[in-house]
Amino acid sequence: MKVLVTGGAGFIGSNFIFYMRKKHPDWDLLCVDKLTYAGNLETLAPVMDDPHFRFSKTDIVDRKAIFSLFEETKPDVVVNFAAESHVDRSIENPAVFLETNIMGTQVLMDACRQFGIQRYHQVSTDEVYGDLPLDRPDLFFTEKTPLHTSSPYSASKASADLLCNAYHRTYGLPVTISRCSNNYGPYQFPEKLIPLMIANATADKALPVYGEGLNVRDWLYVEDHCAAIDLILEKGKEGQVYNIGGHNEMRNIDIVKLILQALDKPESLITHVADRKGHDQRYAIDPSFIHQELGWLPETKFADGIQSTIRWYLEHEDWWKNIISGDYQNYYERMYGNR
Ligand code: NAD
Ligand code: DAU
């Protein structure tokens, strides 16, 4: 089996490559990544010399390059993680989100049509459903919840999902889609809530909480997400959407306090800053469909996963300090300087 993994130098894609190496050691994995600010080749160092692994620095929007790569390598399965993934950046500059997340998806599916494929899997997000009100804890996102997006990021992801459905129905492309809740774990870029707060707390820097910090996210350990995608590749039904989540809702402020406690740092580091524009209130996945259909259940409890994630960041300071010492400083200044 030959699996083409796009966005494999990013957070979830790299964890997926490591997961698949262990789970299917004889499968060939081809990682395609443009190496944007969010892609880091150092992350993939442990697999670079593996004879079953190959890396190609390619932009998924580059039709010519993607088609020649497909012609040369003839993948059996494509798993598309490649995306611009940060909501705040999409608010600052939406254009690249539309290019990569929508046009890139189209290029990949066109290549699948041209060269044939057993499965095209689109890694989507629960953000395509918009948000739920904080005062209705009885409501959850199911696969039937209408798409109702808030940010340019989520609008671009929802557009890609619609395109996947269209390619399935119109051309019979064997597509599956997964919509997962917020992931946490090793190798997450330090612009996202959990690693940003760990990095700032260890440096005794202010922890910028948007608004009151009462927004709720539904957190899943990244390896559980990877296991769900592997299961969908194996047993998923073509044309089907699968929601992935572990019923683990937390308020942002509680996560931040938990990180401070684990690092033995004072809550006085918390700084409430201007809220994100159009900030989604609550995400909450109903994962009963993937459980009933495919038998998937998450394995990592949040209490364990968050502690091991904090430990990982403490033990891999080089990995993230390298990142935050470069151009990321300019982003941080733009995003938080006058907030
Ligand atoms: P990430 O930002 O950490 O990584 C994205 C990767 O894609 C990077 O390696 C980057 O270099 C690469 N990339 C970007 N543009 C590209 C292009 N044009 N061509 C090739 N490669 C390109 O993102 P992540 O958090 O790992 O998310 C991966 C996927 O999972 C995304 O599609 C995202 O929408 C989805 N998702 C993320 C979460 C989450 O909590 N992080 C939850 C649900 C779904
Ligand atoms: O739900 C899945 C989505 O989760 C993915 O599709 C996205 O790619 C991923 O980035 C994530 O989106 P969020 O916007 O939920 O994640 P983020 O880490 O940016 O923010 C989580 C919450 O924390 C959100 O309510 C905003 C808040 N926040 C974030 C940052 C970076 C803060 O209060 N302060 C911060 O500095």
Characterize the structure shown.
With 339 residues, this protein is an alpha/beta fold. The chain has a domain at 2-187 and 220-247 and 280-300: NAD(P)-binding Rossmann-like Domain (Rossmann fold), CATH 3.40.50. Helices cover 42% and strands 17% of the residues. Helix 1 links the parallel strand 1 (2-6) and strand 2. The mean pLDDT is 97. The structure holds nicotinamide-adenine-dinucleotide and 2'deoxy-thymidine-5'-diphospho-alpha-D-glucose. 2'deoxy-thymidine-5'-diphospho-alpha-D-glucose is lined by residues 85-87, 125-127, 181-182, 192-193, 196, 208-210, 213, 215, 217, 252, 276, 283. Residues 6-7, 9-13, 33-36, 38-39, 59-61, 81-85, 100, 104, 123, 125, 157, 180, 182-183, 189 line the site of nicotinamide-adenine-dinucleotide.
* The CATH H-level homologous superfamily of the domain at 2-187 and 220-247 and 280-300: NAD(P)-binding Rossmann-like Domain
Look at the helices and sheets and give the structural class. Answer: alpha/beta
| Biggest sheet features | 7 strands, parallel
Helix content: 40-55%
Widest sheet: strand order?
Answer: 3-2-1-4-5-6-10
Task: Name the helix and strand elements from N-terminus to C-terminus, one letter apiece.
Answer: EHEEHEHHEHEEHEEHEEHEHHHH
Uncertain ranges: none
**Gyration radius from CA atoms, angstroms:** 19 Å
Q: What is the highest CATH level, the class of the domain at 2-187 and 220-247 and 280-300?
A: Alpha Beta
From the 3D coordinates, which CATH architecture of the domain at 2-187 and 220-247 and 280-300 would you assign?
3-Layer(aba) Sandwich
Bound molecules: nicotinamide-adenine-dinucleotide, 2'deoxy-thymidine-5'-diphospho-alpha-D-glucose
What is the average of the pLDDT values? 97
Distance between the termini: 49 Å
Q: Which outline best applies?
A: globular
